[in-house]
């Protein structure tokens, strides 16, 4: 399949890396004209910075840009590729953002966190596909199954709820790790001492209901510990951490009192 990728960020980079061996990536659109890690060999795709230069040979156009840019970028792409299957890779953008302009549209969403520095295990990464036409749905499903063992045909509504849950499970959790590191760094304590705890918590969340696995002073209603922690944070003049601690502890207490 001849594929053009729109974007030069982390998702675009990883899609290129995983697709280039099985398919022909003919073009990559980059506003800067640059794309990370692209070799200068004869099989390298053409880098374009003008959407008007998109090739009519494109069989699948993958939009991998920020969510807010999708509505703007679909218009010029549609004008150049009016009959091509165009998909976006966003977890939080409804397919109607594309179909409002371009009918032959779809979604190819990998539920994963991407960093240029780390490789992705695509075989275990859930991939969610959606398309306006059955034949395009089959095409995207086949493409997804060539990459992953976990492929799902989800509606936009299902995918949007999953993306919201992913923000809690991934982005918010990572920020909690960041806050934890700030606390120990302030006392020259090795953050790596928390690694076994972090790993065990993640393992338990995958093997049982997270509600049943909750531990800690808030769940136990241990007011002495809760108040001591609040004093420590207040004394360190970290109101931001104190506010988060108070909010999350309150939510945990309410959750487990109700249950």
TrEMBL record:
<dbReference type="InterPro" id="IPR008927">
    <property type="entry name" value="6-PGluconate_DH-like_C_sf"/>
</dbReference>
<feature type="domain" description="DUF2520">
    <location>
        <begin position="126"/>
        <end position="251"/>
    </location>
</feature>
<dbReference type="Pfam" id="PF10728">
    <property type="entry name" value="DUF2520"/>
</dbReference>
<dbReference type="InterPro" id="IPR018931">
    <property type="entry name" value="DUF2520"/>
</dbReference>
<dbReference type="InterPro" id="IPR036291">
    <property type="entry name" value="NAD(P)-bd_dom_sf"/>
</dbReference>
<dbReference type="InterPro" id="IPR037108">
    <property type="entry name" value="TM1727-like_C_sf"/>
</dbReference>
<keyword id="KW-0560">Oxidoreductase</keyword>
<protein>
    <submittedName>
        <fullName>DUF2520 domain-containing protein</fullName>
    </submittedName>
</protein>
């Amino acid at each position: 399949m001849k594929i053009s990728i729109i974007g030069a960020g982390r998702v675009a980079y990883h899609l290129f890396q995983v697709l280039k061996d099985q398919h022909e990536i003919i073009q990559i659109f980059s506003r800067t004209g640059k794309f990370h890690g692209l070799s200068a060999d004869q099989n390298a795709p053409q880098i374009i910075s003008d959407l008007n230069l998109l090739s009519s040979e494109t069989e699948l156009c993958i939009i991998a840009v920020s969510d807010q840019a999708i509505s703007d970028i679909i218009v010029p792409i549609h004008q150049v590729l009016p009959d091509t299957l165009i998909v976006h890779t966003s977890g939080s953008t409804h397919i109607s953002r594309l179909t409002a302009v371009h009918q032959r549209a779809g979604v190819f969403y990998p539920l994963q966190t991407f960093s240029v520095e780390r490789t992705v295990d695509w075989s275990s990464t859930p991939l969610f596909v959606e398309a306006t036409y059955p034949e395009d749905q089959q095409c995207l499903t086949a493409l997804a199954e060539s990459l992953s063992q976990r492929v799902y045909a989800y509606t936009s509504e299902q995918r949007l709820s999953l993306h919201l849950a992913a923000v809690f499970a991934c982005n918010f959790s990572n920020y909690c790790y960041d806050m934890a590191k700030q606390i120990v760094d302030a006392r020259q304590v090795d953050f790596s001492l928390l690694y076994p705890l972090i790993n065990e918590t993640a393992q338990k969340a995958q093997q049982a209901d997270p509600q049943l696995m909750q531990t800690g002073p808030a769940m136990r209603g241990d007011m002495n510990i809760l108040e001591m922690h609040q004093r420590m944070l207040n004394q360190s003049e970290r109101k931001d951490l104190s506010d988060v601690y108070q909010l999350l502890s309150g939510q945990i207490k309410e959750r487990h009192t109700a249950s």
